[in-house]
Fold this sequence. Notes:
Layout: H1 4-15, H2 22-39, H3 47-59, H4 66-84, E1 95-100, E2 109-112, H5 118-127, H6 137-161, H7 175-205, H8 212-226, H9 233-272
Antiparallel strand pairs: 1-2
Helix pairs in contact: 1-2, 1-7, 3-4, 5-7, 6-9, 7-8, 7-9, 8-9
Amino acid sequence: MIALPWVAIFLAAPTTYFPAVRRLSLGLLALGYAAALANGQLGLPAAIPLALLVLAAHAVQPDRKPHVRRIGHLLFIALAVGLSLHWLPGFHNPRVIGPAQFGPGAVPFTMHLNLDKPLIGFWLLLVLPWVRPRYGLRTSLLAGTGAWLVTTATCLAAATALGIVAWAPKWPAASWLWLLNNLLLVTFAEEALFRGYLQGGMSRLLKSQPCGEVLAIGAAAALFGLAHIAGGWQWVALASIAGVGYGLAYRFGGLQAAVLAHFGLNATHFFLFTYPMLQRAGGQ
């Protein structure tokens, strides 16, 4: 019973990509969050943000008046910020890893299985189909793999030169859990928000502009970089560069390609380099 919420939520993430099985995804989500409530991992105060997400979903529908849709989007953005920063009450995210050191001299790493942040990705894919433009599997794989390799080489070489990480190959005991969480919850939610919603939304707004796509990629990448400001200017710069790579993957291969590129970089970082960073890079 303790693992049931995560089994259901992990399964819900890939099914959300397919509109034909929308009901299955919703059913798995309902099962997962009901089990989390029964386990005490979800408190009654969480009903407020969940209800507001439903309200925002109704407000942004195409048949609503423009001012109602704008209010709905503003409400979602406010909720997305609160959910991603774990500011909203009622979510008791269990710690499943750490504190543990992943590499010599690494900053101790802690990982929680989050119930709040993934709601961003689920809301976007279930409510706004345009965040997931349709591309063929081959096209998505090529775009995602190319962006993964180029972005990973660029960012990890720069991070090594800056003294943020060092070569440290490893396979920790909790690797399988890290992999599932990072692929199905972390990169899923982040790419749905930054590439699908922000980049995709700005592309739609700027489609008549000659450099609209470039501006959308750059703006979403800059916001993605700022989201890493807690790590210092180095992480802001590296995340912004990575955001450009993920943005190009999204532009030429869709959301699946962006998730692949993001997950590929994260996995390479986790298994082959200091994770998340060297202590001296954090001023410790």
